[in-house]
Specification:
This protein is mainly beta. The protein has one helix and five strands. It has a single domain, classed as Roll (Ubiquitin-like (UB roll)).
């Protein structure tokens, strides 16, 4: 199953050079968390994810062709 990840801000370093990274997942019932772990993205660095433009939890089961936008935690001062 193929899904697409858009990594924002400092999380871009976990992806390739393309704006949108495609990711082949081996099994069905794979969650957004599984996809992030496959790219070695630390969950502690993630604020929230959008799946096909809707805010969803990391336990959301992915479908073929889903686009996951991963937003980093930010700090200000």
């Amino acid at each position: 199953m193929k899904v697409y990840l858009v990594l924002r801000g400092p999380l871009k370093k976990y992806g390739r050079t393309e704006q949108i990274n495609s990711l082949d997942l081996e099994q069905n019932k794979t969650t957004a968390k599984d996809a992030l772990e496959q790219l070695n993205i630390p969950l502690s660095a993630v604020s929230f994810v959008l799946i096909n433009g809707e805010k969803k939890g990391l336990k959301t089961v992915l479908q073929e062709g889903d686009e996951i936008t991963v937003n980093p935690k930010v700090a200000g001062g």
